[in-house]
Specification:
It contains 8 helices and 3 strands; from the N terminus they run αβαααββαααα. With 213 residues, it is mainly α.
């Protein structure tokens, strides 16, 4: 499973219909090129690949009056929406994955109902705590990493990461339970994508051959 699939599906879904450069612009606006594999080539490849897989519907539109080649606009399909929601839920629960998977999911948490997100995050906490409990059967953090030689630093790092993950997740749960953010079914959601022609202050400015297609 790749974070780029969730990011691209989610960006297209938020627009309704979007061409590749719009999707790229959104992901750069979110900083995804810094914390994930959302580079221009992988974004355009993902769009074409998911169109072939039936997750996106490709529409070729006429060139603008300013000239240039026809652009392809993408629209998420029913199968694409199902894939998007499945990945979103899975990434909020799973703790044993690359950080970009959770980071991508956080960008779309408001696409789910509030109570469901809280339930998924609580499930995440339980998973981390169960993992920590199994590790500490043979590694006691209080005795320090030296008990296992320098290799103990590996376990020490992961236990501290688990503790930080639990603390952060519980904080997010509390914020959500206290009313933070607007979730699905609660009203107008926060708009996290750029409108056509809106300037992106975080754009890399790097041109790609697919930008005008």
């Amino acid at each position: 499973m790749s974070a780029i699939r969730l990011l691209v599906l989610g960006a297209v879904r938020q627009h309704g219909r979007a061409h590749g450069y719009q999707v790229r612009n959104d992901l750069e606006y979110w900083g995804a090129h810094e914390w994930s594999n959302a580079k221009p080539g992988s974004i355009y490849h993902a769009l074409k690949q998911m169109a072939k897989q039936g997750l996106l519907l490709a529409h070729e539109i006429a060139p603008s009056t300013a000239g240039g080649p026809p652009r392809t606009e993408y629209e998420i399909t029913e199968a694409g929406t199902e894939e998007f929601l499945t990945m979103l839920r899975s990434n909020l629960v799973s703790y044993d994955q690359r950080p970009d998977m959770l980071t991508a999911a956080l960008g779309f948490i408001v696409d789910l109902p509030r109570d469901e997100v809280v339930g998924l995050l609580k499930q995440r906490v339980r998973g981390i705590e169960e993992w920590r409990s199994s590790v500490t059967e043979y590694y006691t953090p209080e005795e320090g990493p030296e008990q296992l030689g320098h290799i103990g630093e590996i376990m020490n790092y992961w236990v501290h990461t688990a503790d930080g993950g639990v603390e952060w997740t519980r904080g997010l749960i509390k914020r959500i339970e206290d009313g933070a953010y607007t979730f699905a079914g609660e009203g107008e959601p926060f708009v996290g994508v750029l409108a056509e022609g809106e300037e992106n202050p975080y754009a890399t400015g790097t041109k790609h051959a697919e930008d005008d297609r």
